[in-house]
Amino acid sequence: VPPAKSEYERIIKVEIKRDTKPRTQNHVLIKQVSKGQLVRLTYARTFDEKQGMMKDITIEDWDNGKVARIQRTPQAKWTQGTWIMEGGTITDLTGKDGVARTMTFDKQVLPISETPKAITLDQKDPDQMTIGELKMYIDILKRQYMPTSKYEMEIYRRFTVPLASFFFALIGVPLGVQSQRTGASMGLGFSVVIIFIYYSIMTFMTGLGQGGVIPPFLAAATPNLLCGAFGCWMIYKKDNV
């Protein structure tokens, strides 16, 4: 589903709307994979396609599933077909006994070949990412001391939203078991109202979870817990009538 969602968005924005995506973005992530393995992650806190500029950049070089080298630079500019970094540091993590070595540089080529336009089009919204991509993005943001609630909420919602059908059934069964035809119709209408209330609560809790007001897991699970508790109470009441 996430790849299909991403392709859908690309068709809408590029083919139909002629690329109306904002040229300035925050939290840009560029992933490079070779033979099915991650080899490099490039993260920029801000990116401006029009100016060809990325700022607050962190580059992680991976080797066999581990970070081998980290490069940091305040900015990189697209110059004559190449990204040029200025005034950064390189930390080598492959030293013996876990000893890290740090070097500085004045100018260096950023090891990515994507043009500013390609970077703009490659960026994904949370609902376009796979769970693996979301986890990877969360790890990077944590290392940058940036909030991750929005992406954690998306992971939990991948499980809690499909489970909602089970909790709806807990409410629907006692409402549907009616001795009279009119009672069943009223039960169906009541179920629609309950589902509407559920999605209202889910929208409200999602906002709280993404904003970091409450833990994302609690925000994602609360609608199902409330719905399940209400359904169990209705079943108990129906069974004891």
Descriptive account of the structure:
With 241 residues, this protein is an alpha+beta fold. It contains six helices and six strands. Helix content is 49%, strand content 28%. It has a six-stranded antiparallel sheet with strand order 1-2-3-4-5-6, with helices on both faces. The protein starts with a helix and ends with a helix.
DSSP strand content = 25-35%
Residue share in helix: 40-55%
Shape: elongated
Strand order of the largest sheet: 1-2-3-4-5-6
Mean pLDDT: 83
* N-to-C SSE string, H for helix and E for strand: HEEEEEEHHHHH
- Which radius of gyration do the C-alpha atoms yield? 24 Å
Q: What oligomeric state best describes the polypeptide chains here?
A: single chain
Annotation field: number of helices: 6
- Main sheet: strands, sense, barrel: 6 strands, antiparallel
User: Which structural class best describes the helix and strand composition?
Assistant: alpha+beta
Low-confidence stretches: none
Strand runs, count: 6
Gap between N and C termini: 45 Å
